[in-house]
Amino acid sequence: MRNRSLFLLAAVPAFLFAAGCNEEQKKHTEEPVIAASATGHPDWSAQSNIYEVNLRQYSASGSIKEFEKQLTRLKEMGVEILWFMPITPIGVEGRKMTEKDLGSYYAVKDYKGFNPEFGTMDDWKTFVKNAQGMGFKVITDWVANHSAVDNHWIKSHPGFYVRDSAGKTISPYDWTDVLKLDYKNRELRDSMIDAMKFWVVQTGIDGFRCDVAEDVPADFWKECIDSLRKLKHVFMLAEGEKADLHEAGFDETYAWNVMRTMADLYAGKKTVTQFDSILNADIAKFPAGAYRMYFTTNHDENSWNGTEFEKYGDAYKTFAVFSQTMYQSVPLIYSGQEAMNKKRLKFFVKDTIAWNNAYAMAGFYKTMLALRKSNPALAAGASYKKLSGSANAAVFSYAREANGHKVVVILNLSKQPQKFTISDAAITGEPLNVFMGVKEKVDTHHEFSIEPWGYIVYDYR
Predict the structure, then answer these.
(1) Distance, CA of 154 to CA of 70 (rounded, Å)
(2) Which of 166, 258, 338, 456 has its CA 20 to 30 A from that of 366?
(3) 302-321 per-residue burial string, b: 16 or more CB within 10 A, e: under 16
(4) By C-alpha distance, which of 284, 108, 287, 309 is closest to 212?
(5) Please, are residues 393 and 272 in contact by the beta-carbon 8 Å criterion?
(6) What total number of domains does the chain contain?
(7) CA 443, chain centre distance (Å)
(8) Per-residue pLDDT tens for 201-225?
(9) Which of 94, 98, 51, 96 is nearest to 76 (CA)?
């Protein structure tokens, strides 16, 4: 939930990043790969991926039973972690649009209830069991920062809410359908942790994606995550970009800054050199063992800022390749991306994805997800090294390595065709061109030819 009436991003000249980041990046990215369990992450997570489920818009009924019919297809595509947008009941009072509309998922009326829009709690429990039986992990969105205006806590525990000098409750930002919760209140903290434990114990989920996590005190998250992990080694994804979220116990944070830079690069507002500098600065900011969620779209981006086709045009696949292969990435795919959804899905009302039984991008994602799963060089902690060549102003290439395995990614981040060589010896070998399906002999003298916004992925196994 990221749509705010005003979002200020400090514009720092990219060249300021470059000098201070190269050594820090090298320290982080050329260390040997560390097994997920050794870093504190769930041992299944380092080569995994996330698929965000917008259940309301997924089918005409929007039910969990209807979504379950898609599990075989998603399993074939290679999806592993299913992240569900909030499945809790939605408040009615102050509901966005009108009270007759469905409202915001993120206005939680009951933290231990299941939204009847999607089915019953028993339907959910059955789904989780069946999905896990097929090898999926299931996480749900959790809204700890605020509740619906008509959440029962407002009457039973009025002290749970932040109030202004006049004693009135406060809505964060322009979110008039919710009220800000007060983490100075000890009982609130205990109640929130208890509610999260309910979903782990009673429904068996594997973790949470935590909404606006930066706006909730980090010390609460530390206490909460420590408590949850006494029950199960849950996977924790924070909607936030502060490094201290990892110190609090989160496995993964959002890579918003890089995502925005990708859009600026396509629009001609940033150069490849600036892109590299911003990426290096981002790497230097976070612990070496952190996971970062790289993505080209999600529910907020699609609804409020435009589809991936609006933002990245001809480069939509190029940046998807980057997101799937970048250092520290446990990447995201959003509902409908496999069908090339070109519609901005409405947020507060029903607006079903037009699937048309066509999954034009499913093969592309299957190729990327299979490579991620089969090659340790694409584990989140595998080493990362940028490769230099004769067209550095347009071509961005890098190597990922771990345990004798290697993947090289070459991206033409320009609207012009490029012919070039790569001078780093890491390119040398006879790798499989993953998307062409053939082996190619390449070395530092090989002349590459690549179309505008084109990409090459080499597997050196």
Answers:
(1) 38
(2) 258
(3) bbebebbeebbeebbbbbbb
(4) 108
(5) yes
(6) 2
(7) 35
(8) 999 999 999 999 999 999 999 999 9
(9) 51
Distance CA 378, CA 115 (A): 37
C-beta of residue 348 within 8 angstroms of C-beta of residue 103? yes
Q: How far apart are CA 427 and CA 94, in angstroms?
A: 58
**Last residue of one domain, picked from the residues 381, 409, 439:** 381
**Is there a domain that residue 108 lies in?**
yes
d(CA 457, CA 138): 30
Indicate the pTM of the whole model. 0.93
How far apart, in whole angstroms, are the C-alpha atoms of residue 404 and residue 257? 31
Residue 44 CA, chain-centre distance (Å), reads: 17
Q: In angstroms, how far is CA 404 from the centroid of its own chain?
A: 28
Q: Which domain holds residue 446?
A: 395-459
Residue 390 lies in a domain: no
Q: d(Cα 344, Cα 330) in Å, to the nearest integer?
A: 25
CA distances from 402 to 14, 32, 284, 336, 381 (A): 30, 7, 20, 32, 9
Whether 387 is covered by a domain: the verdict is no
Residue 283 shares a structural domain with residue 413: no
Same structural domain, 344 and 442 = no
The tens digit of pLDDT for each residue in 82-127 reads 999 999 999 999 898 776 678 999 999 999 999 999 999 999 999 9
Give me 179's structure tokens: 């009220």
Given CA atoms 345, 350, 356, 361 in this order, what sign does their dihedral have? Answer: positive
Per-residue pLDDT reduced to its tens digit, 261-277: 999 999 999 999 999 99
| Cβ neighbours of 243 (radius 10 Å) | 12
Task: Give DSSP secondary structure letters for 157-203.
Answer: -GGGB-B-TTS-B--STT-TTEEEB-TT-HHHHHHHHHHHHHHHHHH
Same domain, 373 and 403: no
Cβ atoms < 10 Å from Cβ of 433: 14
Q: Which residues contact 147 (CB under 8 A, 6 or more apart)?
A: 91, 107, 108, 109, 111, 153, 154, 178, 179, 181
- Is 16 domain-assigned? no
Return the residue matching tokens 């898609």: 70
